[in-house]
Design goal:
The chain has about 260 residues and is α+β, with helices and mostly antiparallel strands. It contains ten helices and four strands. A four-stranded antiparallel β-sheet has the order 2-3-1-4. A hairpin with a 3-residue loop joins β2 (about 60-65) and β3 (about 70-75). α1 (about 30-45) runs antiparallel to α2.
């Protein structure tokens, strides 16, 4: 079956997600995170073989590096989105494979992307990307996480070289207002494209049959009486079968975070 063509953004801005193949970790220590950030900076400030500056390959507005995946809010520039993500993926995989004597693919074959065509969704994504570690229970607030771009907004204008283009964002929303927005957690009902929270490939009826036939659960909500470990095993199977996170939240009544982390 032919791959579906990527939806083109009218603004040139996209939300991009890169994930380790089979959900494997792509960052093991601080050196790995730092190396990936260096690659992002090289996309913004590229040079030729003689060290002369080249036009920016892209513009970043936000990023968040998690253990096994990456979120980027990116605008294409001198190169297409696909070319930029390929450069990043190939370069980082070469570094990772050499360091860890790893063979084969590091990233899932095809990165996910969605167009960002209006100001409102842009700021929703800015919140979502920076809130990823909070939603995952890694930190209590956005500013406590070392590997996202929020620190660049807090340090904007101090002369330190940054990966993200913060000025045009802060011209649309002052820092104090943006800080409040970014730290105001998005409702779980907000729909954001993600590896695990996109459209379900199974109907509700199919998912109900899945729980009945495989686990003898008359109602998906009966999963709540199981132990946490057993819940995770069943939820993992349900996601692999094709249930989306938001669908499973609705059917089982179990929290978004528990289902996403299963």
């Amino acid at each position: 079956m032919a791959r579906q063509a990527r939806e083109v953004s009218g603004t040139g801005i996209y939300h991009v997600m890169m994930r380790g193949i089979n959900r494997q970790n792509i960052f093991e220590d601080e050196e790995d995170y730092t190396r990936f950030l260096e690659l992002l900076l090289q996309m913004v400030c590229p040079v030729d073989d003689n060290g002369r500056p080249l036009p920016s390959r892209c513009t970043f507005y936000a990023y968040c590096l998690m253990t096994n995946h990456v979120h980027l809010l990116i605008r294409d520039g001198a190169e297409s989105l696909a070319e930029v993500i390929k450069r990043i993926g190939v370069s980082y995989a070469q570094y990772y494979n050499k360091k860890y004597i790893h063979f084969g693919h590091l990233f899932q074959d095809r990165f996910k992307s969605e167009p960002v065509n209006d100001n409102g969704y842009f700021f929703t994504l800015l919140r979502y990307i920076h809130q990823n570690p909070v939603a995952a229970g890694i930190t209590k607030d956005v500013g406590s996480y070392k590997w996202n771009s929020w620190g660049e907004y807090e340090r904007s204008g101090n002369g330190i070289q940054a990966i993200c283009s913060t000025k045009p964002v802060l011209e649309r929303m002052p820092l104090n207002e943006l800080r409040g927005l970014v730290n105001d957690l998005l409702p779980k009902t907000v729909s954001i494209l993600d590896y695990d929270s996109g459209s379900s490939v199974r109907t509700d009826e199919e998912m109900i049959d899945f729980f009945v036939n495989n686990y003898s659960l008359t109602r998906p909500a009966d999963l709540q009486i199981y132990s946490r470990d057993r819940q995770k095993d069943i939820l993992r199977d349900a996601k692999e079968y094709g249930g989306s996170i938001r669908q499973l939240v609705r059917l089982t009544g179990i929290s978004f975070t528990i289902i996403r982390n299963a």
